[in-house]
Write a structure and sequence with these properties.
The structure is a homodimer. Chain A has five helices and five strands; from the N terminus they run ααααββββαβ. Chain A has about 140 residues and is an alpha+beta fold. The first copy, chain A, has two domains: about 80 residues, Winged helix-like DNA-binding domain superfamily/Winged helix DNA-binding domain (Arc Repressor Mutant, subunit A, Orthogonal Bundle); about 45 residues, Ferric-uptake regulator, C-terminal dimerisarion domain (Dna Ligase, domain 1, 2-Layer Sandwich), CATH 3.30.1490.190. In chain A, the strands form two sheets. In chain A, strands 4-3-5 form a three-stranded mixed beta sheet, covered by helices on one side. Chain A has a two-stranded antiparallel ribbon with strand order 1-2. The model of chain A has no long low-confidence stretch (mean pLDDT about 95). Chains A and B meet through α5 and β5 of A and α5 and β5 of B. The first copy, chain A, binds a DNA duplex (30 and 30 nucleotides) through α2 and α4.
Chain lengths: ~140, ~140
DNA sequence: TTTTTATTGAAAATCGTTTTCAATAAGTAT
DNA sequence: ATACTTATTGAAAACGATTTTCAATAAAAA
């Protein structure tokens, strides 16, 4: 698995491959931390100086549309993005260093069925996210 | 339970009770839908016309600080607030009408312990939110 | 009632994001 | 390789949401 997977995805969906997009993909792909558009901009500009912030926004938009990245919601803000895991994944975030781990937690079925019965809701989706301290920070 | 609970809380924490704050509290307290600052402004101005948007922001800030309201995170945006439930509560949101229900789902203990063991993380907090269709909308 | 000072709304400033637009460069056809 | 078409680019401007500044006001204390 390398950045070429994302590049191919962009290509297959009719998007052109440019130096700007490569720089953004190289920056976000495989990052262990969720990155905001400005953070992506700062990092990616080390690889491609002419990159504009607008292009970062536009590229992130496309990567999100192709489900290659996902927005991360946190108490401090909801502008950061991280690589989208494969299949239905949940996030575990380190409150100290911001590192992100994925886990699949579909033990939630019995819980959601329970709530559905109690409330009368037809449940379609769920968001689950854990916060704590990673091995290095605890 | 009435809005006076929130008013007292403000008072007890050294904040003055004003017409502007009463209008905001009256609007947000007991609302079954999460409201954005602008929505609060529009609704509250029906009760107190001189109210300014800035004061809405400032009052919401104080209510959040006192844990009387909480920010609601949704795919469409994360600016809306709703009354904070009592104790540790989770949210169930109707994707159609925006109605919000609370539920307590601490069946998560075994799941979080599991993840903690697998990842080495020390887990401090969790966010769980369900989305679906309420009884009226399904 | 008087005094003190937190609170107010309006205007300006600020921040993140989106739109506009002419120049450029990617991919295709020649 | 070369020419052509058109998606993509970055800069500047526009935008919307939120925050700051500030003099006037009103709540609470004296």
């Amino acid at each position: 698995m390398s950045t070429e997977i994302w590049i191919s995805q962009l290509q297959d969906n009719g998007y052109r491959i440019t130096s700007a997009r490569r720089a953004v993909v190289d920056t976000v792909y495989g990052s262990t931390h969720a990155l905001t558009p400005i953070e992506v901009y700062d990092k990616a500009r080390k690889k491609y100086r002419a990159l504009g912030l607008v292009t970062v926004y536009r590229t992130l938009e496309k990567l999100e549309e192709l489900h290659l990245i996902q927005r991360v919601h946190q108490p401090i803000g909801c502008q950061a993005f991280i690589s989208a895991g494969v299949g239905h994944q949940h996030l575990l975030l380190c409150q100290n260093c911001g590192q992100v781990e994925f886990f699949d937690g579909d033990d939630l079925d019995s819980l959601t069925k329970n709530i559905a019965r109690k409330t009368g809701y037809q449940i379609k989706e769920h968001w689950l996210q854990l916060f704590g301290l990673c091995v290095d920070c605890r």
